[in-house]
């Protein structure tokens, strides 16, 4: 369990922890791979969420997934970029939390993922929680904790 004082320093507020959906680059399941590739390369993203027509979370698409799809052992088939829909090749196994999440769960997940998607109980995409936001909070703890709190070793107190 994360202590309240640490939690307050780690995240300014749970609202600022989640980057809202309207500020997140996404692609649709029916977009072609050329569109996804353009978004990934232009904005320098490693991976982006894939949504359906109703803005429900469906998966993730990444540069390696796209490249694996258009390559074979002898050649890269760039013409396939305009033929294949994102929904056909996206990764359907992705990390997510519901809007009412536990910070501890998010921290465990961010060890393995750069971001966690946030969805409501019906699967509608609400935003992302990024590893960088947690690292900003860690930086805040490193610089502010001893300015706000008196720290004593338990060994010293016990004597």
From TrEMBL:
Domain CBS span(s) in chain numbering: 86-136
Keyword annotations of the record: CBS domain
SUPFAM superfamilies: CBS-domain pair (SSF54631)
Protein name, entry field: CBS domain-containing protein
InterPro entries tied to this protein: CBS_CbpB, CBS_dom, CBS_dom_sf, Diverse_CBS-Domain
Keyword Endoplasmic reticulum included in the entry's annotation: no
Entry keyword annotation includes Hydrolase: no
Organism the protein comes from: Alkalibacterium putridalgicola
NCBIfam families registered for this protein in UniProt: CBS_CbpB
